[in-house]
Amino acid sequence: MKVVSRSRSRGEQKQEWSFRKEDVRDSGSALIDAYRNEAWKIFNNLEMPDRTNEAWRRTDIRGLAVNRFSLPAQGAFTHLEQPPQRLLESVTGESHGGQVLLYAGGAETRLDETVKAQGVIFCDLLTAEREYPDLLGKAMGKVIGAGEGKFAALSGSLAQMGVFLYVPKNVVVENPLHSLLWGPGIDLAYVSHIVVYLEEGASVTYVHEAASPTYETGQTLHSGLFEVHVGRGANLRLVELQSWGEHVWNFSHERVEVEADANLDWIFGAVGSRLTKNFSDLNLIGRGATGKMSGFFFTDHEQHLDHDTQQNHMAPHTTSDLLFKGALLGHSRSVWQGMIYVSPDATKTDGYQANRNLVLSPNARADSIPGLEIKTDDVRCTHGATVGQIDPEPVFYLMSRGISKRDAERLIVEGFFDPIMQRIPFEGVRQRFQTAIQDKMQSYGI
């Protein structure tokens, strides 16, 4: 389901991708293969997005070396860096009920027997193709269509890695599930597809992280789809952490559709990548559906992060609440474009969005573009956006109390992020964000 159109563009210059038709994997499932072959056709027919397209106007991707990337060979991870132990540990304060580790050309999966006995499926994409092709095929491509963009089609056709999470009706998964996409190496294309499907009355917490080392030269590509369906009366707490290396070009389409009386708590944080273009959509499709989106980012050096969020109210008595906060150092740039859409049938809608940006360097820049599109009466929708620097008055006040300027500025930045931290129910996630803040500020002498 797509509400606000994002037109396809004519590329400023034709670029030849290194991928070929034989890279489209044959799964043996008629449903899955038909979807992938159609996505491949769409990928080849669409031009690269450029700045004549409104959604891409503030993000220039002409520097992406599309002719250099290759998909990782089977077992490539054995010759590449391994993930640090801290990325494998739980950030939710509880042990994992299951874990999927996605590597270059390989995967590891673990699921507790008690969770498995409930009928829960939690595995990597290739395992799902072999063991659950009918269930996966019915869910894949239903929330996000391959025709929604060049990178959506790329991910749909060539995904070699991903996760399939299925929770049956009325099943409550007590311990959080965790997945990690670890992407070391240069000139590799990590193409992922994550599919999450919760039946009516189901409940689960799912944490997904994408990360890699940073290399001084070269590029790595990540292109991903993240499709989520939350059934009637179901409950999903979704945590996404992005700490790609600063040589990674990251493109993703993410959408969660929430049915009647269901609830979504979506937390996402980004501190990595050279360039990110992320579409994150919340579709409230059933009466009484609710969704909360809490976003965090911190950029430095030459990083460029562009997040495009939509809160689409398609049914009456739906509620959405978005708070997105970020800080910038160095020559970095952030873009946030937000839209609350209310359909003609969505009376009694309550929608809120806010984006706050703290610019900590004279060479950094933040663009913030909120929007409302309301097509019915009897709704309450508000939005706001701010871009500013550290106010010198509270710095002076703290210094007058014997606190150094450096510590005063650090306290102010921590206070700026406190509202977003209060929305995060997991101490481990808050600690991860706070560590990122401290590391980036220390590198700039703050």
TrEMBL record:
Q: Which superkingdom heads the taxonomic lineage of this protein's source? A: Bacteria
- Provenance organism: Ornatilinea apprima
Q: Which SUPFAM superfamilies match?
A: Stabilizer of iron transporter SufD
Q: Where is the composition biased (Basic and acidic residues)?
A: 9-20
Where in the numbering of this chain does the SUF system FeS cluster assembly SufBD N-terminal domain appear?
A: 21-177
Domain SUF system FeS cluster assembly SufBD core stretches: 189-416
Against InterPro entries, the record matches this protein to: Fe-S_cluster_assembly_SufBD, SUF_FeS_clus_asmbl_SufBD_core, SUF_FeS_clus_asmbl_SufBD_sf, SUF_FeS_clus_asmbl_SufD, SufBD_N
Q: Which GO terms describe its biological process?
A: iron-sulfur cluster assembly
> Region Disordered: which residues?
1-20
The UniProt similarity line reads: Belongs to the iron-sulfur cluster assembly SufBD family.
- A Pfam family found in this protein is SUFBD_core
Please give the name of this protein: Fe-S cluster assembly protein SufD
